[in-house]
Automatic annotation (TrEMBL):
Listed name of the protein: 1-acyl-sn-glycerol-3-phosphate acyltransferase
Written domain comment of the UniProt record: The HXXXXD motif is essential for acyltransferase activity and may constitute the binding site for the phosphate moiety of the glycerol-3-phosphate.
Organism: Shouchella clausii (Alkalihalobacillus clausii)
Keywords in alphabetical order: Acyltransferase, Lipid biosynthesis, Lipid metabolism, Phospholipid biosynthesis, Phospholipid metabolism, Transferase
Known catalytic reactions: a 1-acyl-sn-glycero-3-phosphate + an acyl-CoA = a 1,2-diacyl-sn-glycero-3-phosphate + CoA
Domain Phospholipid/glycerol acyltransferase residues, every copy: 35-147
């Protein structure tokens, strides 16, 4: 068992102890090749939820402040996280994300850039569209339906990959592609809301 797999097991134990977790659509994640998981963001529990129940490892950006704690820095890096300056203009984290996708691995991002205080899906930043257009990754929309309440139900839905070929060929803007991704996340949420 790798450290990442051990981390997944710990996350599953934690999430299952606190919440009634329901996962749908794992079959929509391609077995190989680059994947960009795009999810709405409602809690600090979202990153472990997004990656705990699937086979393939997910890499995440994590705020750079977390990497200032020596033990945490080492652990985060071993679990596949990499730092991002949330103040903006962090070209290194953009390059790292694209390099991960180019190597055929999976990156998880939250296009809204911050947690929703109401649980409603907000506007996405253009970063999701940028990664979708600048890579050949499969773009998988994911809806997280909460709220995270003790022993309450939390639902995660992995949607079918969104075809990007036409958008890449037509030079659709990153902002427009992000809007398409966010629309798909909203549709998943609306479709599965009653099951949560």
């Amino acid at each position: 068992m790798t450290l990442y797999q051990f981390g997944q097991a710990v996350c599953r134990l934690y999430l299952n102890a606190l919440f009634k977790v329901r996962i749908y659509g794992k079959e929509n994640i391609p077995d190989k090749g680059a994947v960009l998981l795009c999810a709405n963001h409602i809690s600090n529990n979202d990153p472990p939820l997004l990656g705990a129940y699937i086979k393939r490892p997910v890499r995440y950006m994590a705020k750079k402040e977390l990497f200032k704690v020596p033990v945490l820095k080492t652990l985060l890096r071993k679990l596949g996280a990499f730092p991002v300056n949330r103040a903006g203009g962090d070209k290194q984290s953009l390059r790292t994300s694209l390099d991960i996708l180019k190597s055929g691995d999976m990156v998880g991002i939250f296009p809204e850039g911050t947690r929703s205080k109401t649980g409603e899906i907000g506007k996405g930043l253009s970063g999701a569209g940028f990664f979708a257009l600048k890579s050949t990754a499969h773009v998988v929309p994911c809806a997280i339906i909460g709220p995270y309440k003790m022993r309450g139900r939390v639902t995660l839905v992995y949607g079918k990959p969104i075809s990007m070929e036409e958008h890449r060929a037509n030079r659709t803007s990153a902002k427009e592609v992000t809007e398409i991704i966010m629309d798909e996340i909203q549709k998943l949420k609306d479709q599965y809301q009653d099951l949560s």
